[in-house]
Amino acid sequence: KYAVTVAGGGSTFTPGIALMLLEHMDRFPIRKIMFYDNDAERQEVVAQACRIYLKEHAPEIEFGYTTDPETAFTDIDFVLAHIRVGKYAMRELDEKIPLKYGVLGQETCGPGGIAYGMRSIGGVIEILDYMEQYSPNAWMLNYSNPAAIVAEATRRLRPDSKILNICDMPIDLEEKMADMCGLSSRKEMQVGYYGLNHFGWWHKIYDNNGNDLMPQIKEHMKANGFADALSDTNQHVDESWVHTFQKARDVYAVDPETIPNTYLKYYLFPDYVVETSDPEYTRANEVMDGREKFVFGECRRIVENGTSKGCAFEADAHATYIVDLACAIAENTQERFLLIVPNEGAVENFDRTAMVEIPCIVGCNGYEKICQGAIPQFQKGLMEQQVSVEKLTVEAWIEGSYQKLWQALTLSKTVPSARIAKLILDDLIEANKDFWPEL
Ligand code: G6P
């Protein structure tokens, strides 16, 4: 039986993940769940509700929550990390500051993603170090954002650590593609995929009998993008997400040979994204008014009632990939996942030192990469620009370099000039002074 620490115990996603873990106990048996957060107050609410839920549904599991690293990371097998340094208040600024200058505001793309990256690097490295200090054999399954920048930081700073960087967006989109083909799950497909995190393309999709599913998926993308396909997730249902799934039709049209990750919208149609954004009310506001209120309201209700009976929490189906990944390591299942890993030739004509998102086979000793061959000029050009943004951001963090961060912003395809980049940067520095290293 396994012991798991959830880093980001006060996250709005934590209850859904805890319930999801319980649902999969038959294949991933758990003896202990620990929550860890550096915000005691926020975690308290979520953890107290989860304690009640666990006591009622799985009393055999030892449960605890703490802000003390030694307690959190001692005697564990896995760390599930989904931290948000600066919380939603800072996400709001990441989104709104660029919009002031007519540049898109998004938590992982463009200036907002760079700002968030500069906050996240230290937090993720700190957790990794705690895990290695107190449970040297444990694995960290990291899906903290912005995953591309965080992954590059772990490659640079902790290259030998037992960490797997993974993102849920390709999983969600693969579920939608499976639905387009009448399959019940993405597990009935084998894919070829290359890119950076939130910046990738599918170039091959087969069913488990080797039949090519691309023609069917392309037909669907041409007409609807990802809009009317279902997935088994219950996360991306808000209007702004539906909008993104629709817009994928235009993103697809730019290169109809491949199927794009939805986030390419931000790089290929930044003008459209700015035009359709409300600079006074961004996704952070939507989340704070929606998910945040719902989750904390529900937690308080459970605590007041002293029971989880009738609570509206659901197991986060969207997050079952985390159990799949933990099982792959724990049980050596050799399952395929899209991971964010050092390229080292897997994408033949691309920077060997880049952190790329590609299919890998995962087992008890970690992952093996599946080569994706050479990629077309269009994708290569976009990826070279974007990977440079990510690398410069990490270098800026390591060296405390204003110049490199300015270069990172200037290189971002979402920013029109070095002048605008500087204006945004100076505002971001001011807003992030409690979080960034001094530049
Ligand atoms: C997807 C992405 C995540 C991102 C999330 C944002 O799941 O893969 O990287 O964090 O969307 O969702 P939200 O509902 O917070 O806007």
Protein architecture, described:
This protein is of the alpha/beta class. 49% of the residues lie in helices and 16% in strands. The chain contains 16 helices and twelve strands. The protein has helices at residues 14-23, 40-57, 69-73, 87-100, 110-134, 147-157, 169-180, 214-224, 239-254, 265-268, 270-275, 283-305, 320-330, 377-399, 402-411, 418-431; strands at residues 2-7, 30-36, 62-66, 78-81, 139-142, 163-166, 189-196, 199-207, 259-260, 335-342, 355-363, 366-369. The protein has a nine-stranded mixed sheet, with helices on both faces. A hairpin with a 2-residue loop joins β11 (355-363) and β12 (366-369). The protein is globular, with a radius of gyration of 21 Å. It starts with a strand and ends in an 8-residue tail after the last helix.
Query: What is the spatial order of strands in the main beta sheet?
Result: 3-2-1-4-5-6-10-11-12
Number of helical segments with 4 or more residues: 16
Order of H and E elements? EHEHEHEHHEHEHEEHHEHHHHEEEHHH
Assign an overall shape: globular
What is the CA-based Rg, rounded?
21 Å
Percentage of residues in strands: 15-25%
**Class by SSE composition:** alpha/beta
Distance between the termini: 46 Å
Low-pLDDT regions:
none
Total beta-strand segments = 12
The main sheet comes to: 9 strands, mixed
Bin the helical content.
Answer: 40-55%
Bound molecules: 6-O-phosphono-alpha-D-glucopyranose
**How confident is the prediction overall: mean pLDDT?**
97
Q: Layout of SSEs?
A:
Elements: E1 2-7, H1 14-23, E2 30-36, H2 40-57, E3 62-66, H3 69-73, E4 78-81, H4 87-100, H5 110-134, E5 139-142, H6 147-157, E6 163-166, H7 169-180, E7 189-196, E8 199-207, H8 214-224, H9 239-254, E9 259-260, H10 265-268, H11 270-275, H12 283-305, H13 320-330, E10 335-342, E11 355-363, E12 366-369, H14 377-399, H15 402-411, H16 418-431
This protein binds 6-O-phosphono-alpha-D-glucopyranose.
The site of 6-O-phosphono-alpha-D-glucopyranose has 7 residues, from helix 12.
